[in-house]
Amino acid sequence: MDRFKGNLASYRLQLLMPAFFEAPAVDGMLRVERGAVRRHFFFQRGYLVGESSSEPMEHLGQVLVRLRILDAAGAAAAFDAAEAAGVPFGTLLVERGLVSKARLMEAMEHKAREALFDCYGWESGEVEFRPGLPPLGRAVELQLGLKELHRDALVRLREWKVFWDLFPGPSTTFGVYREFAVERVSAAEEQLLQLAEKGATLSELLAASPEGPLHGARWVLRLYRRGALTPRKPRGPKVGEATALADLLALARGLVEAGRYEEAVAVVGQALERAPVPEAHALYREAEVRLTVALADEVLSLDGRLYFEPLPRPLPPSLTADDLYLYAKLRGSRSVREVLRNAAMGELAAYRALRRLMDADIARVMPDNTTPKRRSRTDPYGVPVYVPSPSGRGLSR
Predict the structure, then answer these.
(1) Are 318 and 213 in the same domain?
(2) Residue 390 pLDDT more than 80?
(3) What is the pLDDT of residue 238?
(4) H helix runs in 208-277, sequence order
(5) Alpha-carbon distance 381 to 110, whole Å?
(6) Are residues 292 and 325 in the same domain?
(7) Where are the compositionally biased (Low complexity) regions (predicted)?
């Protein structure tokens, strides 16, 4: 592919991206710029091997803190040390043993994925492709398949379309009905409810999420489905939708009565995408609670028994961006149950992601009579790294 420059109003990323991974795959740098935000993506043989961004919230240090891989003070001190030494931030973290290479790769991959996915939603700005790669020096390289990234980005676009079709716009304000949010309110949900009670707009609710607008949108959508948040100017059903809405509610009631709660949640979700109907909110709450109870024993049995293999390179194409994000969160937490309960994607979606990680043999369950493995650092290719034990002897597998 020759050098190319255009406007995102005419050349959206979902149209351009297949050209970078369909045979023959091309090497080069893609620049995407809108306003003060400039991002560079480096492609090689159908993979994303590097990414940079001018957005302060996308700094690697910020991502490491959000994923609980480093604390804020440690990240700031390490960044200053890297600047003084003139070496890449990530390289210094690994060389000084502050972060394992495997965990650094998780954070870098998450950072790169989210930056690319965000650019898919841009409808204005500049896009430019330059053949050839600049020397990456001592930087830690990524290896993310462009085909899988494109797949996940299109899923995100559809998710956002459903969200914005549902609410009137960024200036939407909400009525708060706490009687429908008494049970199972996470810290993130409580923050959103408090902001909504003070009259915050939808754009302000999305901006309040420390993990980004997508996670904020997912929390808002879950509160809406429960009936705890209702837009002050709700969109009613369009002409011809009322009959279909009644059919969906009848189907959902039947699924709940049959104990098919997972299917009921999906059907009620479709109904609530059409209009905020009180019966649909009630059915969603009932199906969600019953489904959670049904999953509780299995999820509780995993606490303290899960251990995680390093991610293979390249990553399995069956895993989605949400699966990999959940993997990073689980690796930084002691409680599987708490991570799943507090996942913005929803407990059911998080449970499905965990099952996919287990099917890929990345998340494994130890037998009841097995002592948990103490592995704080592992090379991303599975080579054991010396880990000190309390007795002073090293443990490796």
Answers:
(1) no
(2) no
(3) 57
(4) 213-226, 241-257, 261-272
(5) 18
(6) no
(7) 380-397
Q: Hunting for tokens 């002050």 — which residue is that? A: 232
The structure tokens listed for 2 are: 């020759």
pLDDT digits (tens, 9 = 90+) for 271-280: 888 778 888 8
How many Cα atoms occupy the beta-carbon half-sphere of 235 within 13 Å? 16
Q: How confident is the model at residue 229 (pLDDT cuts 50, 70, 90)?
A: very high
Q: 0.90 cut: is pTM over it?
A: no
Q: Which domain holds residue 114?
A: 4-159
Whether 342 is covered by a domain: the verdict is no
- Could you give phi then psi for residue 174, rounded to 5 degrees? -130, 150
Residue 388, pLDDT > 50, answer no
Contacts of 115 (CB under 8 A, 6+ apart): 39, 41, 51, 53, 55, 58
Among residues 159, 175, 209, the one where a domain terminates is 159
Q: How many distinct structural domains can be found in the chain?
A: 3
Helix axes 261-272, 213-226, angle to 10 degrees: 100
HEC string for 93-106: HHHCCCCCHHHHHH
Residue with tokens 């299995």, as numbered in its chain: 298
Residue 339 lies in a domain: no
Burial class of residue 123 in the structure, from the number of CB atoms within 10 Å of its CB (0-12 exposed, 13-18 middle, 19+ buried)? exposed
Quick check: 136 pLDDT over 70? Answer: no
**Quick one: pLDDT band at residue 396, thresholds 50, 70, 90?**
very low
Together in a domain, 287 and 317: no
> How much is the pLDDT for 397?
29
**Tokens 């304000």 appear where?**
173
- The owner of tokens 């034990």 is 389
